[in-house]
Amino acid sequence: MEIKYGRADQKIKINKMRNKKNTFPYQDYESIPAWKILGQAIEELERNKDLIIQTDKRYIIGFILKEFVKNGIVELNQTNQP
């Protein structure tokens, strides 16, 4: 999106979103085996009414896994293998 301010030769470009539309920021973490385990744990906490979620669970799981990877607890290149 381009918006003109002031003189005709002055232009300021505004980027509304840093990520491309419809991209999921934690997509790289979905293949980590802990993704499924965290999802099940969060669902159990919700069922027991110990936790109330107000956002998409995928964002919660993704954020937690991102922090685990950052702190060396989990490796990003893990995959779901039998």
Explain how this protein is built.
The structure is a single chain. The chain is mainly α and about 80 residues long. Helices cover about 35% and strands about 5% of the residues. It is built from two helices and two strands. Strands 1-2 form a two-stranded antiparallel sheet. Strand 1 and strand 2 form a beta hairpin. Helix 1 packs across helix 2.
Give the arrangement of secondary structure elements:
Blueprint: E1 2-4, E2 11-13, H1 34-47, H2 57-70
Antiparallel strand pairs: 1-2
What would a concise description of this structure say?
Helices cover 34% and strands 7% of the residues. The chain has 2 helices and 2 strands.
List keywords for this structure.
82 residues; globular; single chain; mainly alpha; two-stranded antiparallel sheet
How many strands in all? 2
Strand fraction equals 5-15%
Order of helices and strands: EEHH
| Sheet of most strands | 2 strands, antiparallel
Rg over C-alpha atoms, rounded to the nearest angstrom: 19 Å
Q: In terms of per-residue confidence, which ranges show pLDDT below 50 for 5 or more consecutive residues?
A: 12-19
Structural shape: globular
Give the strand order, joined by hyphens, for the main sheet: 1-2
Number of helices: 2
